[in-house]
Amino acid sequence: MVFKKSVVVAAAALLVAAVFAAPADASPDTDFLGAMHSHGIQAHGGDDVLVDLGHEICMMRQDGNSEAAIIGALMPYAHNGLSGDDITFIVQQAEAAFCPAVGGVTV
Questions:
Q1: Please, how many CA atoms are within 13 Å of residue 83, restricted to the half-sphere of its CB?
Q2: Counted domains in the chain
Q3: What string of pLDDT tens digits covers the 107 residues of the chain?
Q4: Which residues of 68-83 are buried (b: 16+ CB within 10 A; e: fewer)?
Q5: Are 74 and 65 in contact (CB under 8 A)?
Q6: Residue 29: its H or E element
Q7: Distance between CA atoms of 58 and 102, rounded to whole angstroms?
Q8: Is residue 7 included in any domain, yes or no?
Q9: Does residue 96 lie within any of the structural domains?
Q10: Residue 82 falls inside a structural domain
């Protein structure tokens, strides 16, 4: 009986490790795109446009712009189904994926 329990525990541990292991192709770009897609955010120009935007946001933060300033600068572009919350999400996810040292947090 103890043998069977340990086999079940070992199998469960392997399953958990497989589920939570990062995919082999994980990168900041794929992490950022995954967050965007799971939040329902897509760009008309495709994923490259989103990634470029994320990198641009990070460069703005590294240049000393505050998160609030970047969000404010992007607000006029809130259209095509994007809300203010979506803009905030994009900025925060860009920080988290591409420049966490500047204070990126995930929401």
A1: 5
A2: 1
A3: 443 433 333 333 333 333 344 455 579 999 999 999 999 998 889 999 999 999 999 999 999 999 999 999 999 877 767 899 999 999 999 999 999 888 654 43
A4: eebbeebeeeeeeebe
A5: no
A6: helix 28-38
A7: 8
A8: no
A9: yes
A10: yes
